[in-house]
Amino acid sequence: MIDFxxxxxxxxxxxxxxxxxxxxxxxxxxxGTDIIVQLREGLQSADLVVDVKxxxxxxxxxxxxxxxxxxxxxxxxxxxYENSEISAAYTALTDAVHIIGGWQIQSRASVGGNLCNASxxxxxxxxxxxxxxxxxxxxxxxxxxxxxxxxxxxxxRNVLEKxxxxxxxxLPAPGPHSGSAYQRFIPRNEMDIAVVxxxxxxxxxxxxxxxxxxxxxxxxxxxxxxxxxxASNWLAGQPISEDVFAEAGELAKKVASPIDxxxxxxxxRTHLVGVLTRRTLATACERxxx
Length: 290
Known about the structure:
single chain; alpha+beta; Uridine Diphospho-n-acetylenolpyruvylglucosamine Reductase, domain 3; Enolase-like, domain 1; 5-stranded antiparallel beta sheet; 4-stranded antiparallel beta sheet; 12 helices
C-alpha cells in the first residue's frame, strides 16, 4: 500500500475543506471495508484519506414510527437491522444490510458507503431506490439533494463533485398497508456478489387486494443499479396475483442490459430479473398485509 495522510475531522466543514484542498487525490473512509482493500490492492490511490466516522451528523440516525428515517451516511449496517422499529418499517433495507458481507463487515460497513462505492451489484442500492430514498450532499458550494436512483453514474462512480461528501439519507415513511423486500441470487455462499439483485416496494389499498403504488429496482444487470419505472407504474391498480407479479417481472427485464462474466451469462441474468422481481413483489405484498 502506498503511503497517504490520514485525518479524522470531527466537524463537517473541516472535512469539506480537507477534501477540497486535496481534490482528486482525496478519498473518504466511512467504514473502510471497500476503500482500504482498494488502496491495498492498487485499485485506487490517494494522498489523503479522510475518516468521517467522528462527525456526528454522519454517524447518527433519527426515526420515529410514522416519520421519515434520517440515516447518517456512516451508520453501520448492524445498527439498521438491530433497531427493531427501523427493521420492521424498512424491510427491504433490512434484507439488504443483513447480507452485506459477514457480521464483522457489517460492524463497520455503512449504507452510505455502499451507495458511494457505486458497485453495479451493490445490495443496499436497489433497496434504497425501491424505498425512494434521497441522498443529502454537502460541499464547498453548499448542500444539495439527489434521489438514490440518480446517485450512481457508472461502475464505481457517483455524482459527488470535488470537496463533496454524502452526509445522510432520507427514507420516506412507508405508510399503512405497505411492504418491501430485497433478494439477490448468488451461485454459492462463498461468492458474496449478486448475479442479480431486486428490490420491491408496494403500497396496497385498504382492503389489501390491489396495489396502489409500487417501485422496483435492480442490480447487477446494468452499469449502475436501475429503477424499473415502466414495471413500477404498470403495477398501480393491479390486483395481487402471481400473474401480475410475473408480468411485472417481464416489464422489469426491459431495463436490464447485463453482460456475460464469470458470475453468469447475460441471458441467465435477464431470466433472473423476472424471477426475483416476482418473488420480491410477492414478499412485499405479504408483508404489507400483516
